[in-house]
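Retro notes, item 3 of 5
We never archived the inputs for the adenosine-5'-triphosphate complex last cycle. Fixing that now. Sequence and ligand:
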Amino acid sequence: MNALVSLRNLRVSFDGQAALRGIDLDVAPGEAVGLVGESGCGKSVTWLAALGLLPAKARVTGSATLQGQELLGAAPAVLDRVRGGRIAMIFQDPASSLNPVIRIGRQVEEALRLHRGMQGAAARAEAKRLFDQVGIPDAARRLDAWPHELSGGQNQRVMIAIALAGRPELLVADEPTTALDVTIQAQILTLLQDLRRETGMALVLISHDLGVVADSCDRVCVMYAGRIVEQAPVARLFEAPTHPYTNGLLGALPPLDGPRRRLAAIPGSVPEPWAMPKGCAFAPRCAERSPACDIAVPGAVPLAPGHQAACIRATAMGLLKETVAA
Ligand SMILES: Nc1ncnc2c1ncn2[C@@H]1O[C@H](COP(=O)(O)OP(=O)(O)OP(=O)(O)O)[C@@H](O)[C@H]1O
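Structure as it came back at the time:
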């Protein structure tokens, strides 16, 4: 795969506490990758680190490349061109990302000026086109609205228009629908899919909801305590989940058909950074734990094309495959 973005052994710590413990991830041009996991597992920090958006106290090591160009430690001028240009990011709460005292059209025009050098009537016409593209009704008039005059869903569409202004090759959408009503959530997710098809950009969708990610993405990465514990194409993940944590997330999904049942919750909680076990971080919550789980952190084992899991059960399956093939 010729990756658009490659993360290699990406590690982040704050005040000596590890938040990311070695992320390896490729995003191909045009693909949609879902990043899923419980709150605090490092989904947002992964992309904030790659884009140089973490506070100075964060210690970041490893590598994050955009078509071979290293982003970690890159000059501010390089990062300014990448951020909001080749890689755009939208966040959960559009109200806090938009400037409340600048009309929304002006905010889109500013992004067009920064990333495409557009000004005046050309920028205004392009801003209107972007509003049309993201489904803001009565776009010409809405350009002059203030953020507080629009609903949360409309403001998220404005954020998406700002993100599209730089013609990104990758859009990172960090819980883009969490703050919205359920019906609006579905509309925004559909919009992101449509835009990906229209523009050919890649999409990284961050969510704590495996169902949301499964509907919208080609591939899913399951994160736990600062690591990717399993990644696979969506269909494969549902057919052959290997990591017990993935199984736990799948068990927590409501069934598509059949009677409603109580959602299975995974007992226990994620270990705190200062109390990380020596072996597998999920072991204390794992029903399939064995003594070997406590010895060392399991590495990612390839199981099928695009499918890897970091669990000693996967290690055992990998060895079994090698023995059969020999
Ligand atoms: N600026 C910061 N200073 C200190 N710790 C931080 C900072 N930002 C993130 N962290 C820590 O890094 C870890 C990963 O956080 P991150 O926000 O990436 O999690 P997440 O998986 O995106 O969770 P959520 O779904 O709640 O957004 C958490 O333990 C968090 O407390």
